Amino acid sequence: MSEPLLQVRDLVKTFGGRPVLAGVSFDVAPGEVLGLVGESGSGKSTTARCVTRLTRPDSGQILLGGRDVLAAGRRELRALRADMQMVFQDPYASLNPRMTVAELIGEPLLVHGLEPDRRRRRERAAELLETVGMTAEHLDRHPRSFSGGQRQRISIARALAVEPRLLICDEPVSSLDVSVQAQVLNLLRDLRERLGLSILFIAHDLAVVYYLCDRVAVMLGGELAEIGTREQIYGDPAHPYTRSLLDAVPVPDPALARQRPSST
Amino acid sequence: MSTDPLLRVRDLRVSYPTPAGPAQVVHGVDLDLAPGERVALVGESGSGKSVTARAVLRLDPDARLSGRIELEGVDLLKLPPRRMREIRGGRVGLVFQDPLASLNPVMTIGRQVMQPLLIRGVPRKVARRRAVDLLERLGVRDAEHRADDYPHQFSGGMRQRVVIAIAVIAEPALLIADEPTTALDVRVQARVLELLRELADERGMSILLITHDLGIVAGFAQRAVVMRHGRPVETGTVEQIYTAPRDPYTKALLAAVPRIGGDVTRPLAVIGAAGEEKEGS
Ligand SMILES: Nc1ncnc2c1ncn2[C@@H]1O[C@H](COP(=O)(O)OP(=O)(O)OP(=O)(O)O)[C@@H](O)[C@H]1O
Ligand SMILES: Nc1ncnc2c1ncn2[C@@H]1O[C@H](COP(=O)(O)OP(=O)(O)OP(=O)(O)O)[C@@H](O)[C@H]1O
Ligand SMILES: [Mg+2]
Ligand SMILES: [Mg+2]
């Protein structure tokens, strides 16, 4: 096994005396996709925000490529941020409404000094938009004039712009129709295979997680209920909570749906 | 049908002004909802589902609307703005696709959920009790205390449930819910949908549910409308649509749903411009 790209150890976080993370540990290997699923409010986004240092944990350790994320100074943090990009759960709130799409996607390239030339940034933005099923026509529009799924795709294009080694996605495909979703998932898989991109993939859609993720961590009340390979988690879940989640997945078949006990 | 529809939309068209002239994005939508009926609006990203939902309540000041939108027999496109404001949050509850943007960042959660009741003269204490109860029923743990939090202190899925609570607490006749469960785990989602179904069955609330999740549609809706490129391509009962879809896009959509246990070694199928299913590249 190669050295993990991301190592997360014993993350603890409380908000106003309320424990939110109670010792979360996991690794993500280079080129690996780790799914993070679980109860709404269990601490998935908080975990992601700690890894990207948007939130400070009370204690714990985070290493990216062996470098200590929590101890990083300003300059080091900037370098680390070029290596890990995040797609936020709330696509609208995370896109500056005054910027055009070209500026939004070009911004990380500018900030990290990767593409000083404005015209080339624009070209790169157009290419990235196409990989998520949109077009260069969209470049000069502002976020508010886009549909939910279009905004989600703009966020993904923006995160991919700097070619990070680790992509942290918080519900990145939840507003996409199955076809656009398939396009984005195929793209992520392709980047993983071609460039060895690692992904921490937070999602509630267990079929999507099944398709994309090599391993899956299941979160409940600030802890990992279990973590294992796709085959273990879906085929032979160890924790009753995981089983109850799998039992609650809605089936796209009206006849079967009616036979089910309606709720938990 | 024995009852008159609660909502009747005919030939709805929506366009937005752009520097290059008006751009039409919805090209003629027809829609009927009977009291207590649950209808799903599904389809391509960018096909006009949210624009349609917002048009029913005339929420976009920029949007140019034409056609007819009748709620309980009244043409909403002819109502003065003041009457329209009474209908929003009164007879019609709306859950926006973007929960964070529709919450007030400087007002507590409890206060925001109580607001529709306070406006209608319900005493404060009663309103608070009902708000907390509703949040509990939606699976918000320790709602009594959490009601004093602000939106940024809630997780994405908790905020989504707050927005649902605000939309239904005053018992509207119609609920328009735009992707209301995308941030919920499947157990909480089942619980939320169950509550909505109860409101439909017991209070006769009609529900227009916009979603990309064809699993939810199968279990929750009675009828579905499939949209593409700004117009409905197929309308029917959920049974009809799932067992005998007529439109090629609907067929491709149903075939493209990823499934647990499916082949993970091949790219997922995407849908081509003509609506045919294509192998992903
Ligand atoms: N800034 C904050 N202040 C106080 N509490 C917070 C804050 N951010 C998150 N929390 C709380 O921490 C817990 C975990 O939230 P988090 O957003 O990590 O959940 P999540 O697993 O991402 O849930 P969801 O699936 O609903 O998005 C929740 O109870 C939430 O209310
Ligand atoms: N304010 C606006 N100005 C111009 N165009 C707009 C505006 N709002 C939406 N649009 C365009 O109208 C079309 C329909 O958007 P809408 O938000 O209804 O899509 P949707 O079906 O809800 O998609 P999704 O599933 O991605 O949320 C899109 O192409 C979008 O870019
Ligand atoms: Mg979250
Ligand atoms: Mg929408």
TrEMBL record, chain A:
Annotated Pfam families: ABC_tran (PF00005), oligo_HPY (PF08352)
GO molecular function (one): ATP binding
Superkingdom, taxonomy of origin: Bacteria
BP GO annotations: peptide transport; transmembrane transport
Keywords for the protein's UniProt record, in alphabetical order: ATP-binding, Nucleotide-binding, Transport
InterPro entries: AAA+_ATPase (IPR003593), ABC_transp_ATP-bind (IPR050319), ABC_transporter-like_ATP-bd (IPR003439), ABC_transporter-like_CS (IPR017871), Oligopep_ABC_C (IPR013563), P-loop_NTPase (IPR027417), PhnK (IPR012700)
Domain ABC transporter stretches: 6-246
PANTHER family from the UniProt entry: D,D-DIPEPTIDE TRANSPORT ATP-BINDING PROTEIN DDPF-RELATED (PTHR43776:SF7), TRANSPORT ATP-BINDING PROTEIN (PTHR43776)
Family of the protein in this entry: Belongs to the ABC transporter superfamily.
Protein name from the UniProt record: Peptide/nickel transport system ATP-binding protein/oligopeptide transport system ATP-binding protein
Provenance organism: Nonomuraea wenchangensis
UniProtKB/TrEMBL annotation, chain B:
Domain ABC transporter span(s) in chain numbering: 7-254
Molecular function per GO: ATP binding; ATP hydrolysis activity
Alphabetical keyword list: ATP-binding, Cell membrane, Membrane, Nucleotide-binding, Transport
GO BP annotation list: peptide transport
SUPFAM superfamilies recorded: P-loop containing nucleoside triphosphate hydrolases
Gene Ontology CC terms: plasma membrane
Coiled-coil stretches: none
Membrane topology, as annotated: Peripheral membrane protein
Subcellular location: Cell membrane
One Pfam family, short name: oligo_HPY
InterPro entries: AAA+_ATPase, ABC_Ni/Peptide_Import, ABC_transporter-like_ATP-bd, ABC_transporter-like_CS, Oligopep_ABC_C, P-loop_NTPase
Family indicated by similarity: Belongs to the ABC transporter superfamily.
Protein name from the UniProt record: Peptide/nickel transport system ATP-binding protein/oligopeptide transport system ATP-binding protein
Organism: Nonomuraea wenchangensis
